[in-house]
Amino acid sequence: MDELNEHHGDTADALISAARFFHERGWMPATAGNLSARLDDDRMLITESGQHKGQLGPDGLMLVDLEGNVLSPDKQPSAETFLHIILYRRWPRIGAVMHTHSVNATVLSRLAQGSQIHLRDYEILTALPEVTSHDAEVIVPIFGNEQDIPQLAARVDEHMTQHPELLGYLIEGHGFYTWGEDVAQARHHVEAFEFLFECELNMRRLTP
Ligand SMILES: [Zn+2]
């Protein structure tokens, strides 16, 4: 924790601020979801398992290396830590990973079971990297929920090999994962996608 406070205070503060904001918006109820940030080539800072996201403080964060080894004594990592690790290992450009459990993402992932969401004709798409026009299409795949996290991580990893443009994915009846170059960009992506999920849900509700 000393190392965390001395050298990574700004990163910790950014994660805590994002967690509180997402909790206020109802995207991380109670202990649900997890957030992380890369510290260097080998290590990340991630929310500890069981931490309430509306009351998160520096003690609710822990250091884990990209092999999955816990570097913060007496801290319990989330079962989903490995889903963060595969992203950092895959692309050095990824600096932060965010996993939310919003109502909109959860309901949409169940309505569109076993398929994917096609997002197009939304101006806010231009808030996403490499999207320069509202008529571009962003595809969000939906993976079946799985308690076997290494299994789920392997499926996501394989999908990313085929689709290097991927910006985020849903897990059925569970939640959403997205990432960015740093905490600020990943946070923007959560906001943009949550807006899009709410639009999609309303479109489906209002269009017979
Ligand atoms: Zn989750």
Automatic annotation (TrEMBL):
Annotated binding of Zn(2+), by residue: 99, 101
Pfam families: Aldolase_II (PF00596)
Cofactor: Zn(2+)
Coiled-coil ranges from the UniProt annotation: none
GO BP, sorted A to Z: L-methionine salvage from methylthioadenosine; monosaccharide metabolic process
Protein's gene: mtnB
Pathway involvement of the protein, from the record: Amino-acid biosynthesis; L-methionine biosynthesis via salvage pathway; L-methionine from S-methyl-5-thio-alpha-D-ribose 1-phosphate: step 2/6
Signal sequence bounds: none
Gene3D superfamilies: Class II aldolase/adducin N-terminal domain
Domain Class II aldolase/adducin N-terminal: 13-201
Protein name: Methylthioribulose-1-phosphate dehydratase
Organism: Ectothiorhodospira haloalkaliphila
The keyword Metal-binding is assigned to this record: yes
InterPro entries (alphabetical): Aldolase_II/adducin_N (IPR001303), Aldolase_II/adducin_N_sf (IPR036409), MethylthioRu-1-P_deHdtase_MtnB (IPR017714)
Substrates-to-products reaction catalysed: 5-(methylsulfanyl)-D-ribulose 1-phosphate = 5-methylsulfanyl-2,3-dioxopentyl phosphate + H2O
A GO CC term assigned to this protein in UniProt: cytoplasm
